[in-house]
């Protein structure tokens, strides 16, 4: 077996080659904040964008600025071709069986709301149960809570452990004969720890229970093949995957989408309209009422291309992830939270010597961007007995220098506050 130090040296060398290739692609890294070089450690909230994505978005507005699906003129045709091309690109990237299984949304939040509004009423009867986990983001709680109240359903919560990685049974033991739907995160945005999604979904499918996976963080840190995964629905946001804000994907198994009522109604989602009645287009158009975020979809496809081209480097960032986790675990006056080691690029922590908000504010003055707050997971914060935590999260551009700058900045903030 390779010794740890030897491994560290090897991955270090590989990592610096990777960073030389990747970091210049992210123009936002090339700036000072409060007179200090930016150390961006908030990629789980939103990732920085590579030049390829910025250029793809700009090129839509600069050259192919037509509305889609609606005209025969050249700009419209070009925009339509690029938009539908983006759908096909993303479908391939996530392993969907066909492009029509990819619905463009504003983001994961809209995807979940869409399923809660358009799918859940078609399968649920009063008294049925919707099962979530205690690790969910508010986006995967509130829409189900609202739908449950409207439809007379019970919301059940599978409490996941906070000291070890969850196993499938932690979720499945809460499935009852009344469970009609299960929605769970693939990877917690608070802990950076994943659930055994495929195993859970296999069991749910065997019992005929419908499911949605919140892939917002999973799609960033794991390679995703939605067909193999087996969920009925899978959602994510483009902006966490090096793509634009305001664009996301709802993947739905085609037969599920085809049986669903529209979410919003209006232009571009109909077959025929009269004042008496309207008929609706097949998926995905049925769920894309109005003019969509054309440039966003095209920018997101560019992010998929970029990540594919840098797939090897993407994998190598795991070495840095281990270095961060080891260094944070060893840092005096810093308590990492959740099941550890997690081996992803998300690290929540508290420092007993200072308030999280103060620490994040002082870190910003040192040019270091970290997250602070409840991370849209108030139920999980309550379980941890805190109102907020700090969180460091990495992207493919993160470098060993980010770790050293962060530790230096944190120690100096500690001296000031403690
Ligand atoms: N789910 C998870 C796990 C997330 O981390 C986030 C964003 O932080 C969301 C859902 C919501 O994503 P958006 O605000 O892009 O819709």
The tally of strands reads 17
Shape: globular
Domain module tally: 2
Q: Helical segment tally?
A: 16
CATH fold annotation of the largest domain: Aspartate Aminotransferase, domain 2
**Helix fraction?**
40-55%
Q: What small molecules does this complex bind?
A: pyridoxal-5'-phosphate
The computed structural class is: alpha/beta
Largest sheet: 7 strands, mixed
Indicate the multimeric state.
single chain
CATH superfamily of the largest domain: Type I PLP-dependent aspartate aminotransferase-like (Major domain)
Mean pLDDT: 93
CATH class of the largest domain: Alpha Beta
Report the uncertain regions: 1-14
Side-by-side strand order of the widest sheet = 4-10-9-8-7-5-6
Strand content: 15-25%
Distance between the termini: 43 Å
Radius of gyration: 22 Å
CATH architecture call of the largest domain: 3-Layer(aba) Sandwich
């Amino acid at each position: 077996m390779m010794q740890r130090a030897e491994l560290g040296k090897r991955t270090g060398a590989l990592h610096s080659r990777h960073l030389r290739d990747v970091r210049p692609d992210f123009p936002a890294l090339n700036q000072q904040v409060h007179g200090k070089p930016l150390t961006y450690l908030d990629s789980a909230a939103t990732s920085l964008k590579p030049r390829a994505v910025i250029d793809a978005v700009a090129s839509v507005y600069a050259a192919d600025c037509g509305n889609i699906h609606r005209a025969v003129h050249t700009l419209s045709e070009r925009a339509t071709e690029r938009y539908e091309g983006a759908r096909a690109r993303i479908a391939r990237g996530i392993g969907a069986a066909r492009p029509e299984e990819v619905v463009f949304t504003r983001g994961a939040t809209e995807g979940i709301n869409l399923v809660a509004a358009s799918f859940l009423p078609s399968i649920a009867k009063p008294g049925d149960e919707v099962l979530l986990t205690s690790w969910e983001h508010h986006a995967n709680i509130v829409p189900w809570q609202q739908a449950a109240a409207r439809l007379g359903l019970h919301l059940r919560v599978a409490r996941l452990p906070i000291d070890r990685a969850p196993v499938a049974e932690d979720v499945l033991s809460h499935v009852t004969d009344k469970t009609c739907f299960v929605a769970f995160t693939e990877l917690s945005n608070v802990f950076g720890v994943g659930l055994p999604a495929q195993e859970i979904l296999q069991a749910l499918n065997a019992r005929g229970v419908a499911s949605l996976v919140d892939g917002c963080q999973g799609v960033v840190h794991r390679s995703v093949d939605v067909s193999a995964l087996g969920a009925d629905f899978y959602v994510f946001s483009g902006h966490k995957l090096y793509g634009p804000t305001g664009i996301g994907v709802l993947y739905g198994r085609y037969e599920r989408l085809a049986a669903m009522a529209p979410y919003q109604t209006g232009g571009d989602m109909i077959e025929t309209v009269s004042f008496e009645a309207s008929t609706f287009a097949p998926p995905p158009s049925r769920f894309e009422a109005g003019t969509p975020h054309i440039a966003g979809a095209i920018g997101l496809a560019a992010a998929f291309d970029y990540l594919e081209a840098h797939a090897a480097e993407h994998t190598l960032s795991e070495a840095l992830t281990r270095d961060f986790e080891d260094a944070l675990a060893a840092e005096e006056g810093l308590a990492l939270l959740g099941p550890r080691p997690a081996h992803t690029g998300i690290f929540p922590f508290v420092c007993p010597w200072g308030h999280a908000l103060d620490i994040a504010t002082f870190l910003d003055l040192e040019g270091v961007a970290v997250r602070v707050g409840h991370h849209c997971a108030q139920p999980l914060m309550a379980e941890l007995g805190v109102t907020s935590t700090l969180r460091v999260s990495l992207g493919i551009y993160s470098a060993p220098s980010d770790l050293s700058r962060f530790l230096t900045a944190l120690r100096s903030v500690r001296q000031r506050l403690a």
